[in-house]
Amino acid sequence: MAVTDSPVRLTQADLESIIERALQDARARGASQAEAAVSQDTGLSVGVRLGEVETLEHQRDRSMGITVYFGQRKGSASTADFSLEAVGATVAKACSIARFTAEDASSGLADAELMARAPQNLDLSHPWDVTADRAIAIAKTCESAALRFDARINNSEGASVSTHQGLHVYGNTHGFVGGYPTTSHTLSCVVLAGTGEDMQRDYWYSSSRDWHELQDPEAVGLESARRTIARLGPRKISTRRAPILFVPELARGLIGHFVAAIRGSSQYRQASFLLNSAGQQVFPTNFFVAERPHLPKAMASAPFDDEGVATRDRELVAEGILKGYILSSYSARKLGLKTTGNAGGSHNLIVAPTMTGGVAALLSRLGTGLLLTELMGQGVNTVTGDYSRGAAGFWVENGEIQYPVAEVTIAGNLRSMFLGIAAVGDDVDIRGGVRVGSILVQEMTIAGE
Question: Which CATH number does the domain housing residue 71 bear?
C-alpha cells in the first residue's frame, strides 16, 4: 500500500502501516526504543443565531508524532504529511533532536508486560451521516423552541450542532500496535432574556458518543430557556458563611480539581495541595470514587492509555481515603511507583451517590444556603488549594428556592471543602469523563455586599 498525502480517509490498517514504517526507520537509525501515534479527525459544526446560519465548518485534521529514545535521551517530532518522504524526514528529525537532549533516568516506553494484548471493543464509534442542511435545521429547531418559550426571551447567542469522528492508532517497539475509532456529537443552545441591567443568559447542551442518544432538539432549547428565565431579577446578598450545593455540571469541575492535584506530574513537581496524600483521609468516610475505563459508549472510555498500557478498573477513593495517584510510566518512575494506565488522563471517574435523590432532596438537606448554577473565573490554585470564583445561583431558605442571586464570590480551600462534603446526590451527569451528582458542601464563604 502506498500512503500518500491524499485527503481520502484512511483505514486503521493504513495508519498501522505508517506507524510500523516509522518504527522500523527509527530502529534503523539506531534508536533503542521508539513509539508513534497517528490520528485523523473529521467533523462538521454548524451554528445558527436568530434563525440565520452564522457558522459552518468542515474539519479534516490528521497528524503523526514519533518519539525516539537513544538510551535515556529523548527526541520527538510530528507531521501532518503521511507521504513516505515526510514520515522519513520526521523520524530523522526526532533522532537528531534526541542526540542533543540531556539524559533522563525516567524516560522510555512503558514496560512491555503492561501492554494491552487483546483490547476490547467499547462501542465508542457511532458515525452520524448528517448533512450540513440537516444539521442547520436541527439547530434552528432547537433555537426556535427556546425563543418561543417566553416573551421575555428576546435574544440569542445561538444554537449549534457538531459531529466528529476520530481514529487514533498507537504503536511502539515492544511490538504493540493498536487503535480504535471514536465519535462525539453535541447539540447546544444559549439564549438571553430581560431588559436594561437585568439581562440574563443561560444555556443547555446534550452530548453523546451515539447521535441517537442526543436529547431532542426542542428539549435542549426549552431547557436553556427555562434556565434563563429562572435567573431574571437576581438579588445581591450580604457576605456570610453558608452551605453551598453544586449542581452536577459544576460538581464535575470540583472533582476535576481533585484529579489535577493527584496527577503524577503534580506530585513529582511538588505542586499539589494533596502532596503525598496517598493513604490519607481526603474526603468523608462515605465518599467513594472508582475509575471504570471500559464502560460502553462512555465519553472517557479507553481499552489502553496513550502508551499502550492496558486500562483497568480501580478504586481511587474508598471510605474517603485516597488509594493512589493518576500515573503515566514517566511520572510513576519519577515517584518510584508503577504506572496506573493513565497516560493521557483518567478514564470515567464515578463518584458514588451517598443518598437517594438529586437537587430537590439535597435542598432540604441544605436548609438555608446557596444553590450554585454558574461559576466564573479561574481562581483555583491547586498548589495551595485556595479556591475563589465568581458565582451565580439561587438563595435557598428552609429547603425552598427564594430568589436568584448574582454578583457573588464563593471562597474556601479545596482540602477543607472536600472533607466538608455533606452529601452526593444520585442525579448523575454522564456527559463527561467524571460522572457525579450534585454535591453539598457544608460551609463556604460567600462574599457579597
Answer: 3.30.2290.10
